[in-house]
Amino acid sequence: MMNLNTVEILLAEDNMNDAELIIRELKKNNLANNLVHVKNGEEALEFIFGTGKYAEIRSAEYQPKVVIMDIQMPKVNGIEVLEKMKSTPLTRSIPVVMLTSSKESPDIKRCYMLGANSYIVKPVNFEHFADSIRCLGQYWLLLNQPPY
Amino acid sequence: MESEQRYRIILENVVEGVMLFSEDREVLYQSPSILKIGGRAIDERTKIHGFQTIYPEDYEIVQYHFDAALRNPGVPQYFQARLRHKKGHSVWLEANITNHLGTMGINALVMMGRDITERKITEQRLNDSEKRFRALIEYNYDGILLADDKDQVVYQSPSAAKISGWNFDERKSQPSLGIIHPDDLPQINIITRFVRENPGKPYFGSCRRLKKDGNYQWIEFTQTNLLHDKNVSAIVTNLRDITDKKLAEEKLLSATDRLESVLQRMGDGFMILNAEWEFVFTNNQVFELFGINPERMIGKRIWDFNPGLAGSLLELEFKAAMETADSRNFEFLLPDKNKWIYFRVNPIPGGISVFFNDITKQKTGEQEVKKLHRELEQKVEDRTAELQKANRELEAFTYSVSHDLRAPLRGIIGFTSILEEDYSTQLDEEARRITGIIKNNTTKMGQLIDDLLAFSRVGRAELQKTEMNQEILVREIRDDIARDNSSRQIEWLIHPLPPVRADINSFRQVWINLITNAVKYSGKVEKPVIEIGGNLNNGHVTYYVKDNGVGFDEKYAGKLFRVFQRLHSSDEFEGTGVGLAIVDKIISKHGGRVWARSEPGQGACFSFSVPAH
Question: Which of A79, B26, B62, B215 has the most other CB atoms within 10 Å of its CB?
Fold first, then answer.
């Protein structure tokens, strides 16, 4: 079992196919070594705040370099997770990239208002999609300087 | 002469004065009584010549009768004349003179006379007063008529003639009051009978009678039967013309009548109450209110009719009007009658006047309208809510369509790609062709979804109009599109374009779609030329995008602007058939229209026109 305190990417994605494509693309580019995939918002919050099933095994002091999070998730959706993170000083500085399948989403403005660091519409076209994920991973993991 | 002595004694002692004259007017004898009448003594007898004592003005009269006596011996001539009294005043003498010149023993003209001065004065006085009365009658403003016992006019005063216009002769054939108006005749006949039956008692009356000019006049009269009075011996009628007065009265009466009839006939109810709350006047509509004959209400208190009014709004308002002298208007539901009445109460001196009308119909109509209004509002609210719900649902639907339909597509393409990548050695050419088709179709479906969503977004988006420079916009779009098609040599002809007030995002979409189409459909032409122009005419701007491309059959021009309708197959030209439908929708929302002209192989020209402001 990997050290959950050294996780670099937290991927919150309920669509297992999308998650697989994302992880595959990141792995291809050697960006997925320290990646944890949670399947819904509730689990994302438990991970980030070290609660629930992560209570014993994770400390909120250590945070990933980026949280890549789908907006549409069951139970607690991405926006709710974002809101909680950004309203808590401990987690406010974690970069969050919001993913959505929909160009129609009315949420883009709301996400930025809540403090999202990026907002990406997942392309249908696989080449575009792969490109997007690769760029995203490279940028936040290699290029961007995290606050801690 | 014994007999002469005897005559002398008689003459000397008769009360009547006696004078004897000779044929030559010489006084032969004067009796003491005649001397006494003249105020003279016996001893003055011889000193006075007989004719000297006659009042000069009456000298002729005496002379005339003297001569007549001379001519007619034995026939006495009667006359009245004045003597001159010794004291200067005149004395009236009633006398006769007889020629007795041929009578034996007399041989003289004998004049005998007696003093009638007193009678004369009385007569004179009577005469004067009659003259005065006559003058009074003649000059009286009132007309005076005297009629005999057969009611035949025997006298009419000048003023009476003036009043009627009839002269005396004409009046003689009429009854004393004249020719009476038939309507007044029965009443006049009664008066006339009373007058006859009650001598001395004056009767008053008025009636209409015919004037000579053919009109009727109103007269007022007093008639008294004085047939029994010897001084009058007539039925006396005093009358005056009161036509003007009567007309004025009638006018006044008719004004009052008119007012009353107006009050009676007006649709509104009307009543007047005095300070004691008694009815002073009510019109018939009051019956509707109280169900009691208005005539029976006069003088009775309003509160006695409907005890249900006690303590009601009506009582409060009526009392307020009475006490504060303020007008009050109010609506009141009549107890028991279930009628809505609108009251207008106005204070008047000594009470209040009340107008009222039944507004039950309006009231129920009003309530009906209010009810309908409420229902309508509710309906609108319901529909609005439904619409809002539908809109929310539509938004949620498009959201989920865009999200949920795209995600599987991404999976299909993604995993097909993985198949190609990870198993490339195991796939032969045909397998790779098939995976290519899968990806291609899936991509196309993604495009269809995106276009369909774009089309639905156009319908929902609200327009935000601003003044736009079309040339800058068009050149910007042209540059973008030219960049994307940099492999192609397109000749652009962009003419000056008038500005327009429109929604910039929508218009950008319109230009993009039209210009992209022009580029696309001229893709197979050797030297593509795209021309863009516009003009302003009658407050409308018209723009066009013209190409020299493949064109289309105008027969199907109507289909161009419908969703998913295409005139070319995807093999020939890529596309989903949504672009022009979006253009049409945007231009329609701007109050304009779009149309296209073409011939196959001759290129196409798409135009659209919208109000400039």
Answer: B62
Helices A126-137 and A16-28, axial angle in degrees (round to 10) = 60
Q: Is B170 helix (H, G, I), strand (E, B) or coil?
A: helix
Is residue B354 in some structural domain? yes
B453/A17 Cβ within 8 A? no
What is the chain B residue with the closest CA to A126? Answer: B414
CA distance B342 to B340: 7
Does residue B588 sit within a domain? yes
Mean pLDDT check: name the lowest of A64-68, A90-94, B34-38: B34-38
Paired strand residues for B597: B605
Chain B residues within an 8 Å CB radius of A130:
417
Task: State mean pLDDT over A73-94.
Answer: 91
Domain total in chain B: 4
B234 with B281, same domain? no
Q: Could you tell me if B607 and B467 lie in one domain?
A: yes
Domain of B113, CATH number, reads 3.30.450.20
**Residue where one domain finishes, among candidates B301, B335, B358:** B358
User: What's the sign of the alpha-carbon dihedral B259, B260, B263, B269?
Assistant: positive
pLDDT, tens digit (0-9, with 9 covering 90-100), for B425-463: 999 999 999 999 999 889 888 888 888 888 888 877 788
Confidence of residue A2 (pLDDT cuts 50, 70, 90): low
B402 touches chain A (CB under 8 A): yes
- To which residue do tokens 């007047």 refer? B272
End position of a domain, from candidates B62, B88, B122:
B122
Residue B62 and residue B167 in one domain: no
Q: Mutating which of A22, A124, A132 best tests the B interface, going by the most B Cβ atoms within 10 A?
A: A124
B240 and B287 in a common domain: no
Cβ pair A100:B403 closer than 8 A: yes
Cα(B101)–Cα(B21) distance, integer angstroms: 9
Average pLDDT, rounded, for chain B: 86
B7 and B63, same domain (yes or no): yes
Rg (C-alpha) for chain B, rounded Å, is 67
In tens, the pLDDT along B46-94 reads: 666 667 778 888 888 888 998 999 999 989 999 988 888 888 888 888 8
The answer to whether residue B438 neighbours chain A at the CB level (below 8 Å) is: no
- Which residue carries 């907006």 as its tokens? A71
What chain B residue is nearest to A72 in terms of C-alpha separation? B403
What long-range pairs does B274-278 form, CB within 8 A, spacing at least 24?
B274/B350, B274/B351, B275/B322, B275/B350, B275/B351, B276/B301, B277/B301, B277/B302, B277/B303, B278/B302
Give the position of tokens 């001229």: B522
Distance CA B494, CA B491 (A): 10
Looking at beta carbons, which pairs linking B387-394 to residues 24 or more positions away fall under 8 Å? B391/B460, B394/B456, B394/B460
Domains and CATH numbers, chain A: 4-142 (3.40.50.2300)
Burial-class residue B143 by CB neighbours within 10 Å (0-12, 13-18, 19+): buried
Report the pLDDT value the prediction gives residue A104, as an integer from 0 to 100. Answer: 65
Give dist(CA B503, CA B457) in Å, integer: 14
Say how far apart CA B220 and CA B217 lie, in whole Å: 10
Structural domain of residue B91, as residue ranges? Answer: 2-122
B476 and B591 in a single domain? The answer is yes
**Does B38 fall in a domain?**
yes
Residue of A nearest to B415 (CA): A21
- Is residue B439 in a domain? no
Span A109-136, pLDDT tens digits: 899 999 999 999 888 888 889 999 999 9
Chain A residue with CA closest to B445: the answer is: A124
B-chain residues within 8 Å CB-CB of A134?
none
> Which of B576, B510, B578 lies closest to B544 in space, CA to CA?
B510
ipTM given for this complex: 0.78
pLDDT digits (tens, 9 = 90+) for B225-236: 988 888 778 899
